[in-house]
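Working notes for the structural subgroup meeting. M.R. asked for a predicted model of this chain before we commit to crystallization trials. I am recording the input and output together here so anyone reviewing the notebook later can reproduce the run.

Input as submitted:
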Amino acid sequence: MNADTLNIEIRKFLKEVGVTSQRMIEQAVGQAISGGGLSGSETLKARMVLTVEGIDLRHEIEGEIRLS
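Returned structure, recorded in token form:
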């Protein structure tokens, strides 16, 4: 195993996860506000589950996203 390669590959993966996740959340919140399902002042509970096949890794992170 090359530690530098591993580090770079993990960072690339996490960057993709972060950018894609933010875009998806923004779109879903916008649609929910437009559709009347949200007023725009809520605090949303969020959960991210990371799994990595081959090493039996499952990590869960919970948090909140305030809309205002």
